[in-house]
Design goal:
Chain A is α/β, with parallel strands linked by helices and 328 residues long. Helix content of chain A is 34%, strand content 27%. β13 of chain A pairs antiparallel with β13 of chain B.
């Protein structure tokens, strides 16, 4: 491919910044610009050379954008933006509400087919690379058990849930896999593990002035869905400490497929990630899949796809012959 | 898919036995039979119900075989059988001489295209799943370093090399990754590692009566390509001990991609296998790719493919919609 793949970024938060950084590290891609719902002049890109435009006016740039990388959130942005933009652009997104993926896929698929565009949805690491590890693992070891552990890492959803507790000014929540559980899985025991046995939750909380720490701790530890089923520890810190020690967004985890291929032959496949920046890593996965989206679109393969539908070689800047010679 | 995928096995050694065992664990597949160059009556399949036929007469069974799993060796069997059989059958094989893959791919591709067949070559774990880990890792982390460590496991090639030393009756060689090297890579140091720093070699040798152990040890440790560049230890044992303690064929290893997505954000992707039976695992990968070959053939996608060309979802017995709902 001699001409570079021209990408646009729709939405400029942590993920959008990660995409801007990833484009700089992938020489076969270039950035057309950032498209934002905020006032463009209020957005400060990593590089002063990156143009910032209003998302409203993006259609005027359509001819210069090969693939639009959607960097909005899964809760309210993507359900609306995903189908709307896939009707007019080839897109990749990191929609990550697992339970809603089938509906979201159907909506984006219909829009992309109608518009003659290609959209790869639910790209990142979970859903994304972890999903791939589950599919490869279960296809290869037909009989066995699959385990996903997350962390140690910051869960945005759980941090947000703590912030909604009365008396909380700021909070960061770490999801931590239980080492004993991982060891049992690695030993091939194929254990049945409860929610509590798999992960613990660690909370760093800044209180509002006058808030009662015992009431806040109780509200957190008994919160249904988010904390009640886990062993949760709550630490109170001042705001400066939270900013200094808990501003990074590390994450990662493990997918382990453990099975047998004979009466006495245990086999184990393990995939793991250790990430210093969750959004930068997710953005890097998005850019690799944007490369695949550009190639599928060029072949006229329209509609929605997931990571399960994308041949791995399409993610690489190298040709199929180069990959066979160098990496097979 | 309501009808089962009908597989044939061409060649019945450890790998062929592994395929027979894998078919039994994959209910959407069935085994048409074993095809052997030996006298069929001399072959004892795992299941007495498995038919054994002469490979010579395989064309008479062609209409009943959806995919033929080639279980011959890469040195002398597959270079001849791969193209010859891919002209008449959809095939999968585990050709694993890395340096010759491009030539082998070209020969199989030409034969399969001419015959209107689909062939997936170089399937297994290295080449195979490890190759996938390298491609995914390098596509996602565009800037970084990739490391492959093998073992602890039995290397058939190195065991064979020892057996060619005068005075050696039998031998098993284990390839062992150096723990310190793995730790340095996991820490994100991106070290430059020599051959000697990455792996050690452990040899278990049964001498011929009257052979000089010091001469044998010297011949092994100084053997070019196989041992001279490694720290090698040689243990002498009697034949009963070798059979009792070193008859299993464990293997495994690690592929680690370590890179940065920002000035201070190190990211690490790790894929690892811990296998109690190398041939049974390789056979399980072959059966998953046989499923993909049957699907590609049904769509009329002819010619040779590698793991890089196969969308992951094609390996699974589940439909794309089921995978999106359950595993994404």
């Amino acid at each position: 491919m001699n001409t570079r793949i021209r990408l646009g970024i729709a939405g400029y938060g942590n993920l959008g910044r990660g995409v801007e950084a990833a484009v700089a590290r992938n020489p076969d891609t270039e950035l057309v610009g950032i498209f934002t719902r905020r006032a463009p002049a209020s957005v400060q890109p990593l590089s002063a050379a990156t143009p910032v435009h209003a998302l409203d006016g993006i259609d005027a740039h359509a001819a210069r954008i090969d693939v639009l990388v959607l960097c909005g959130g899964s809760k309210s942005d993507l359900p609306q933006q995903g189908p709307a933009l896939a009707a007019r652009f080839n897109t990749v997104d990191s929609f990550d509400t697992h339970a809603r993926i089938p509906d979201y896929f159907a909506a984006v698929d219909a829009a992309a087919r109608a518009g003659g565009k290609t959209a790869i949805v639910a790209v990142g690491w979970d859903p994304g690379l972890f999903s791939l590890a589950r599919v490869y693992g279960e296809a290869v070891l037909a009989q066995g058990a699959t385990y996903t552990f997350w962390g140690r890492g910051v869960s945005q959803g759980h941090s947000d849930a703590i912030r909604r507790v009365p008396g909380v000014r700021a909070a960061v929540q770490y999801t931590i896999p239980v080492p004993e559980a991982i060891e049992r899985v690695r030993r091939g025991e194929n254990p049945q593990l409860t929610t509590r046995e798999k992960h613990t939750r660690e909370c760093w909380v800044v209180l509002e002035p006058g808030a009662d720490p015992r009431a806040v701790e109780h509200a957190i530890r008994t919160m249904p869905d988010y904390f009640a089923d886990y062993d949760t520890c709550v630490h109170f810190v001042d705001e400066a400490t939270l900013r200094r020690e808990h501003a990074a967004m590390p994450h990662g985890g493990f997918v382990i497929r453990s099975g047998r291929t004979g009466a006495n032959t245990a086999q184990k496949i393990e995939f793991s990630l250790a990430l210093h920046s969750n959004p930068e890593f997710t953005a890097s996965v998005l850019v690799a899949y944007a490369r695949a989206a550009a190639r599928l679109a060029a072949r006229g393969e329209h509609g929605a796809r997931t990571v399960f539908d994308i041949a791995p070689g399409l993610l690489s800047p190298q040709s199929a012959a180069e990959l066979r010679a160098a990496l097979l």
